[in-house]
Design goal:
Mean pLDDT: 97
Number of strands: 11
Low-confidence stretches: none
Shape: globular
Order of helices and strands: EEEEEEEEEEE
Radius of gyration: 13 Å
Largest sheet: 7 strands, mixed
Distance between the termini: 40 Å
Length: 115
């Protein structure tokens, strides 16, 4: 059974940093692209980072240069290092993987950036 468990969220001041973690289980982690998304109140879910199986990374312009995704295949964990955080980064952050023609999401972790 695929499981994704996020952690590391919290309250941080404008300009601060946080590192999110997503512990994965139930599938061969190293063979799958991993992604982070976020959803803020009143908005649709937004893709924020992706890391491929050979560690190529992609970001939307809204976070490029401030967020860094990485993975540790030995620990079955994907990370999201967030720097220069802004109040508009406030959201619930979710880990995502597409396995066996199904989308799987974690429960999310809240990130709040105060101004």
């Amino acid at each position: 059974q695929v499981q994704l468990v996020e952690s590391g969220g919290g309250l941080v001041q404008d300009g601060g940093s946080l590192r999110l973690s997503c512990a994965a289980s139930g599938f061969d982690f190293r063979r799958y692209i991993m992604q982070w998304y976020r959803r803020s109140p009143g908005n649709q879910r937004e893709w924020v980072a992706e890391i491929t199986t050979d560690t190529n990374t992609n970001y939307p312009e809204s976070v490029r240069g401030r967020f860094t995704i990485s993975r540790d295949n030995d620990k079955n964990t994907v990370y999201l290092q967030m720097s220069s955080l802004k109040p508009e980064d406030t959201a619930v952050y979710y880990c995502h993987v597409f396995v066996g023609l199904r989308h799987f999401w974690g429960q999310g972790t809240q990130v709040t950036v105060s101004s």
